[in-house]
Amino acid sequence: QVHLVESGGGLVQAGGSLRLSCAASGGTFGTDVMGWFRQAPGNEREFVALSRWSGDITYTYYADSAKGRFTISRDNAKKTVDLQMNSLKPEDTAIYYCAARRLFAIATIRDKNYYDFWGQGTQVTVSS
Fold it and tell me: Which of 54, 87, 105, 117 sits 20 to 30 Å CA-CA off 12?
């Protein structure tokens, strides 16, 4: 069982930056594929970014809304994955969730139902 804990959320003005961090514990199987989702009030939980570690290579994937502004990174030794968010917009306001999954399939990276473990979420609020 993998336990995920997020940190780093907060309130920021539009155009500002925030860095989210997710720490994994409790297991080693299920942390090679870790990413971030977000959920705004009244909306579905949506994919933001994913980091996959395979054969000493890290692959990253981004939602269109995150490309060019967000960067996902990982520290395998510490079992952490971070999300650096720049040029934030009010529409980025949401609860951000860290997620991990045991198996990778590129066709399902945006589908929240294929993730096995979730953090409790951290609030990000971007004011205009």
Answer: 117
With CA atoms as reference, report the closest residue to 23 among 74, 79, 104, 84.
79
Q: Which two tokens stand for residue 120?
A: 């409790």
Residue 88 structure tokens: 């934030």
Mean pLDDT of 62-75: 97
Q: What burial letters (b/e) apply to 48-61, b meaning 16+ CB within 10 Å?
A: bbbbbbeeeeeeeb
Half-sphere exposure of 91 (CA within 13 A, CB side): 4
Measured distance CA(42)–CA(68) in Å, rounded: 26
Using CA atoms, how far apart are residues 17 and 29, in angstroms rounded to an integer?
Answer: 32
* pLDDT at residue number 29: 65
Position 11 scores a pLDDT of 98
The structure tokens 């589908």 sit at 111
- The per-residue pLDDT for 112 is 97
Q: What is residue 21's predicted lDDT score, i.e. its pLDDT?
A: 98
Is 80 in a helix, a strand, or coil? strand
